[in-house]
Amino acid sequence: MTSATPPVNVADYQRIASDLLAPGPGGYYNGGAGDENTLRENVAAWSRITLRPRVCVDVGDVSTAATVLGEQLSMPILVAPTALQKMAHADGELAMARAAQATGTLMVCSTLASSSLAEIAAAAPTGPRWLQLYLCRDREVSFALVDQAVAAGATAIVVTVDAPYAGIRERDTQSGFVVPDHIDMPGVTAALGRSAGLTVEEFFSMVDPTLTWTKLEEFIAKAPLPVLVKGVQCGEDARLACDHGVAGIIVSNHGGRQLDNVAPTAEILREVVEAVSGRVEVLVDGGIRRGSDVAAALALGANAALVGRPALWGLTVGGQAGAEHVLELLRRELEVALALLGVTSPSKLTNAYVSGA
Ligand SMILES: Cc1cc2nc3c(=O)[nH]c(=O)nc-3n(C[C@H](O)[C@H](O)[C@H](O)COP(=O)(O)O)c2cc1C
User: Fold this and answer.
1) Number of domains in the chain
2) Which residue's CA is the nearest one to ligand 1's atom 14?
3) What domain range includes position 110?
4) pTM over 0.90
5) Ligand 1 atom at minimal distance to the Cα of residue 42
6) Per-residue confidence at 4, pLDDT binned at 50, 70, 90?
7) Structural domain contains residue 112
8) What residues contact 91, with CB distance under 8 A and at least 6 apart?
9) In this predicted model, what pLDDT tens digit does every residue of 330-341 receive, in sequence order?
10) CA 278 to CA 30: how far, in whole Å?
11) For residues 151 and 327, what is the distance between their CA atoms, to the nearest angstrom?
């Protein structure tokens, strides 16, 4: 592909974005923990799932529309929370939110967003949004962020539970990556009651590494919105999450950025779905690069999938238009996958549509 050839898939966006990004931000966005085995496996594992189509089914009218935790979306593909989007593009989260709104899907806004939730809501007033939260030792800080989310019309909180400490990402050390001075995290700064910003490292030192299921349940009891947990990686924890009152579970290994050599999410999804047994909705992220990956996730029992880096690559290449194009490419790929599998909507996919189920 030459630079003059328009991107036609996520891999094209990855290549173009990686050329555009400076080494520091490029390594931060593209990198993972340790030897990056999980980072690579996340992607590879989806392609090992073999789809099992049915033919001579009326697929004259196929829709990718889906309802996820009560939100009616154009597709079961959400934008995962990713920090500091202004490093990808000057319009950062505002462009991402507009892209999600334009494609009819939901954006999960990171605690470490480089725009405030109020700014994001103003940029995309009709787009649904959730807030991703790292619970801080000082719960007042977390509840101040929740207040911002409620004021900005967020409809759920996603508590990330796989990051009591940040993973060791060597690309960042090698590149000497630091967040550029002009990019800050206004939501966190305001929640802390500060006027000057703080570093990501400073923020992670405030995250509560003593969080237990009991403490999470206490948080959920006080939270004014439904709470999902993000970062569940086995059936036992999925059951505990249900027992402690979560509204949904996101199967995730943080895109391979936390502990290396954990299983790719495609391989643990089924275990989690079986453990949950329909008590709450199950979402999944990590390595989703094609609409057919989403179809596989749905067939394995997920209600929806999220994309992190693909949306960031789109944002890097073309701001709102780039992120929007990535989301629309994935939606279209899912639509074709549904039709060719012989189903007319995402909810019709079951285990029968993957081999070896
Ligand atoms: C650059 C970057 C920043 C991220 N920041 C956050 C974050 O602030 N909070 C969070 O819960 N997850 C964060 N994640 C993880 C994503 O939400 C998601 O789990 C992951 O990107 C999914 O994998 P994928 O990038 O292969 O789609 C981040 C991921 C990346 C790549």
Assistant:
1) 1
2) 82
3) 10-343
4) yes
5) 26
6) low
7) yes
8) 319, 320
9) 999 999 999 999
10) 34
11) 27
